[in-house]
Write a structure and sequence with these properties.
about 230 residues, mainly alpha, 3 helical TM bundles of succinate and fumarate reductases, 8 helices, globular, binds protoporphyrin IX containing FE
Length: about 230
Amino acid sequence: MSAIAINRTTFFCRTPVAKKVVMAVTGVILFGYLIGHLAGNLLIYSGNPAAINRYAELLHASPPMLWTARIVLLVAVILHIIAAAQLWLLKRRARPVGYCRKEETGSNYASRTMIWSGPIIALFVIFHVLHLTAGKIVPLAMAGHEPDVYHSVIDGFRVPMISAFYILAMVLLCLHLYHGLWSMFQSVGVSHPRYTPLLKRFAATFAFILAIGFISIPVSVMIGIIR
Ligand code: HEM
C-alpha cells in the first residue's frame, strides 16, 4: 500500500463516519448472537431438559469453533465500546455547553440511556458468564459428568435478586437495542421521512421481542412454569 493510501485510511479511521461504521458492524454481530442465543435458550420450554442440554453440548463440541466465536464476540464488544466512547467524546467536544431547552421525545429517552445502559449491559454480561458459564455465583448443576444447563438456569433464577438483576438488564438491553438499531439505520443512510416511522417501529418491535423472550425465562422460573 502506498504512503498516500495509508494516510487516507488512517484519516478515514479517525472520522466519525468510520466510528459509526464500526458501531453498526459490531452491533449487527452482537445482535445476531443475541437472536441465536435466545433461540437456543427458548429450548427450555420444550418440556424436555435434554433439549437445551444437548444444544449446550453441541456448542462446546468443537473447542476451536467455540473459541473462534468467543474471540469474535469479545473483539466486537471491545470495538463497540471504544467506538461508542470516541463518538461520545467527539459529541461533547463539539458541544461543551448543553442546549438551553431540549424537546423530550421517546427516542431522546432511549438515546440518553445509551451512555449508561451500555456499561450496565457489559457488567451484566460479566455477571452472566460468571453465573452460567463459570458457575461462580450459583454452583452449576451436573448431569453425571456433563453440565446440566437446564437445572443450572432454574437454580439461578430461583434466587429473586438474580432474576431481578437479569430483568433490569434485559429492560436496558431493550432500550439499548431500540436506539442502537435505529441509529444504525441512520448511519448507513437507510433513513427517509416516509420510512422513518416504519424503521422506528421495526427497531422497537425487534428490541421488544428479544427482551420479552429473555425476560420470560426468569419470570417463568419464578412463577413455576419451568421447574
Ligand atoms: C434469561 C436470559 C438468558 C439465559 C437463560 C441465558 C443462558 C445462558 C447459558 C445457559 C449460558 C451458558 C452456555 C454454556 O456455557 O453452556 C450462557 C452464556 C452466555 N450468554 Fe446468556 N443467557 C441469557 C441472556 C443473555 C444476554 C441478554 C446476553 C447478552 C447481552 C447473553 C450473553 C451470553 C454470553 C456472552 C455467554 C457466554 C458464551 C460462552 O460461553 O462463551 N446471555 N447464557
